[in-house]
Amino acid sequence: MFDFKNNRDLATIDFDLNFKAVNYSKMVGSSYIFRAVPIYTNARYHQDENRSLPFENRFSYEDEYEIIYKLPVGYIIEEMPENGNVNSEFGTYKISFEKKDDQLIVKRFFQMKKGLHSKDKYNDYVSFRKKVMNADNSKILISKKS
Questions:
Q1: In this predicted model, what pLDDT tens digit does every residue of 1-39 receive, in sequence order?
Q2: Is the pTM of this model over 0.90?
Q3: What single string gives the DSSP state of each residue in the chain?
């Protein structure tokens, strides 16, 4: 981690992170497949038809990432996910993909809104969170140039 900036006035933290991951991709034939967003979440969201209490998002927050994948020499992007947006009363999520030279740039924005919600809205909330997780888990396929 470097270029760490903690702006107390704006309540923001900015930093750059450079890392290598072991076993992050899977080999499929002579190609590799990997997740669009490497930040792992082990959250579980389950529908609850019998919920009896309201629920609350106690604070709002925003996460904004720009992830740059450098393609190995001799590889091309074979498959890339579509750009996506998910909007709801609970928050906003956007993800975009751009190929630039030997790089794939993934931009991710997530905003969670603060709020107290009725029990009837819980399954809508679960659906929103699952759509975000599914988009984060989108796969990218790279292959050797022919």
A1: 778 888 888 888 888 877 777 778 898 988 999 999 887
A2: no
A3: -EEEEEETTTTEEEEE-----SS-SEEETTEEEEES------------TT--S-EEE-S-EEEEEEEEEEPPTTEEEEE-PPPEEEEETTEEEEEEEEEETTEEEEEEEEEE--EEE-GGGHHHHHHHHHHHHHHHT-EEEEEE--
